[in-house]
Specification:
6-stranded mixed sheet, 4-stranded antiparallel sheet, 226 residues, 7 helices, alpha/beta, 33% helix
Length: 226
């Protein structure tokens, strides 16, 4: 479970990026987070990644108190998260297999387990025939699917996708969104930050709208105002 209680984030320059945010995301939920640029969405994600520390309030994720967590425990906490970035962040000199395997090697998973698990993950995102390809040989949609596969590598409980359809065309965007829905149906908590109103309306999931650092709407069913 993710629980924000009266969370504020104030930067040294005085900017109040999050202003008294309170919300709960239960295990296994699918949630869209929407809002205009500068609304506070990115800061919310950074507090979840623990790239930023909240200024006030309480933020608990899967039992971790992110205000009090010690720095040495942050890497262990992040193993609960699978993060999909808009710009893919793939290693250009590594194959698809190696890009996915890298996340597992980083935490010491044995090679034999990696060799068994990576093909399974690639099959989930329909890339089993691209294991030996390099990112430069893939389409934008395929690269985003590799990024999604890498996010799944260590079987995290929470998948966070930051504008996952921002760099690919509408048809491939729908494919990525359907994969996220598929992953959600396997019991994962999925959080998607997006500007894509059409997808939010189409998938009819919970929508949290952020404006000026505040939660201004929280409902199921799409149809957020532009």
């Amino acid at each position: 479970m993710i629980e924000f209680k009266n969370v504020c984030k104030k930067y040294p320059n005085g900017t109040l990026a999050l202003d008294d945010v309170s919300l709960t995301i239960n295990d296994g939920e699918f949630v869209f987070i929407v809002g205009e640029s500068g609304a506070g969405k990115s800061t919310m994600l950074k507090t979840l990644f623990r790239e930023e520390k909240i200024s006030a309030g309480s933020l608990i994720v899967d039992g971790y108190d992110l205000k009090k967590i010690r720095n040495r425990k942050i890497p262990y906490y992040r193993r609960n998260l699978g993060i999909v970035f808009q710009d893919f962040r793939l290693f250009p000199n590594k194959t698809v297999f190696e890009n996915v395997a890298f996340a597992m090697r980083a935490i010491g998973v044995p090679t034999k387990d990696i060799n068994l698990r990576v093909p399974t993950i690639l099959s989930i995102v329909n890339l089993q025939d691209k294991a030996k390809s390099f990112p430069s040989q893939l389409s934008g949609g395929e690269q985003q699917r590799v990024a999604l596969a890498r996010a799944l590598a260590n079987n995290p409980s929470i998948i966070i996708a930051d504008e996952p359809t921002g760099n690919i065309d509408p048809k491939l965007s729908l494919e990525i969104m359907n994969l996220l829905i598929k992953i959600h149906k396997h019991g994962k908590t999925v959080i998607v930050v997006t500007h894509e109103k059409n997808f939010v309306d189409y998938f009819q999931q919970r929508v949290i709208t952020i404006k000026d650092g505040k939660v201004v709407d929280d409902k199921v069913g799409g149809m957020f105002d532009e």
